[in-house]
Specification:
The chain has 113 residues and is mainly alpha-helical. It folds into 2 domains: 16-62; 76-111, no CATH class. It is built from 5 helices and 2 strands. The protein has helices at residues 16-29, 33-40, 44-62, 75-78, 101-111; strands at 81-86, 92-96. A two-stranded antiparallel ribbon has the order 1-2. β1 (81-86) and β2 form a beta hairpin. The longest helix is centred in the middle third of the chain and has 19 residues, at 44-62. It is elongated, with a radius of gyration of 24 Å. The mean pLDDT is 76.
Amino acid sequence: MDDQAQVVEVRRRRTRAEAEQVAGEYEASGLSRVEFCRKHGLSLATLARYRKRQGQSEAVAERRWLAVEVAGANTTLLGSSGLVVALPGGRRIEVGRGFDAHTLVQLLSVLER
């Protein structure tokens, strides 16, 4: 047998929650990517993958539709429109009664990009 056996460190895979925690720690650390990776024993590619995955899960969470129930419709709030969607930053989308559904689908497809 060879007298000089190589010792290789076997790293276990992180769970999705652990990877998200690492990505969050990086974002909060204020360190550069290189500094953070050196300090935590990560490769730059691993950190990039964790950050990308975290960004995708946040984007998916932000795009979820919510069920809405209208009780006692207030026509002064809606005016002549049939639907109002209030977006972050004060933006609003109003769809009038009898709107063209195809146009709304096109609008939503543009907004989801």
